[in-house]
Amino acid sequence: MSEEAPVVFVVDDEKLVRRALERLIRTAGFDVRAFASAQDFLREERPDAPGCLVLDVRLPDLSGMDLQQELIRSGDELPIVFVTGHGDIPMTVRAMKAGAVEFLTKPFRDQDLLGAIEQGIRTHRTARQHRRELLALRRCYESLTAREREVFPLVTSGLLNKQIAERLGTSEKTVKVHRGQVMHKMQAASLADLVRMGEKLGITSPETGSRTKVQ
After folding, report:
1. What string of DSSP letters covers 53-97?
2. How many other CB atoms are there within 10 angstroms of residue 46's CB atom?
3. Which of 85-99, 131-145, 195-209 has the lowest mean pLDDT?
4. pLDDT tens for each residue of 180-198
5. Cβ–Cβ < 8 Å for 139, 186
6. Where do the structural domains in the chain lie, given as residue ranges?
7. Residue 36 CA to its chain's centroid (Å)
8. 136 in Cβ contact with 196 (< 8 Å)
9. What is the mean predicted confidence (pLDDT) over 48-64?
10. CATH number 3.30.70.100 is the correct assignment for the domain at 7-133
11. The model's pTM
12. How far apart, in whole angstroms, are the C-alpha atoms of residue 200 and residue 188?
């Protein structure tokens, strides 16, 4: 099943500016949804598709910067391109440090905006793919039995079946079976593949005590 076409969201309280942005972005071939306020945008049920948010900084009630923080708090990865007629360096730095794709000061070149939108959509598409892969890994991991979950980190730490058997107080033959089941259920093609999966899942190695943060 192919991924839905990307959607660009525009939030600007100035009607003429909002319509001009809609026309420009639609001319570039994107689906566009425009809103006069951050609250209207937050009430919108968004499609499950890659996208980008073109956001004015100064908005009534909830500002663009406040909306950015709200999206961050909710774990929303939608990339933001800020546009403003009243920007300054501290504001720009704050927005970029919080993950904004670009901070454009009006008037800006059409191509600069469209280029930033394309970059944002690429970023969002990649993030969505990574999230799907991680969810698939978690589903595979959840299919493991309690004993197989014990064996998993011991295998990825490089221990031999005999060493794992000694540690778990079982037979080498039993460990071999569990190891095979872990590889099968995780759909790992090799030990190196399983190690990478463990790192993505943040599984602690009992040998090193290290833990890789899940992204």
Report:
1. EEEES--SSS-HHHHHHHHHHTT----EEEEESS--HHHHHHHHH
2. 14
3. 195-209
4. 999 999 999 999 999 999 9
5. no
6. 7-133, 143-201
7. 27
8. no
9. 94
10. no
11. 0.78
12. 13
Fold topology of 143-201:
Arc Repressor Mutant, subunit A (1.10.10)
**What are the tens digits of pLDDT across the range 155-174?**
999 999 999 999 999 999 99
Cβ–Cβ < 8 Å for 7, 47: yes
State both tokens at 193: 């593949």
User: Which token pair is 123?
Assistant: 């970023």
Look at residue 72 in the predicted model and tell me its pLDDT.
95
Q: Which residues are CB-contacts of 84 (< 8 A; sequence separation ≥ 6)? A: 56, 57, 58, 64, 91, 103, 104, 105, 106
| CA nearest neighbour of 56 among 119, 8, 121, 12 | 12
Mean pLDDT, range 113-137, rounded to an integer? 95
Q: Which tokens sit at 20?
A: 């001009």
**Residue 196 has which token pair?**
């990478």
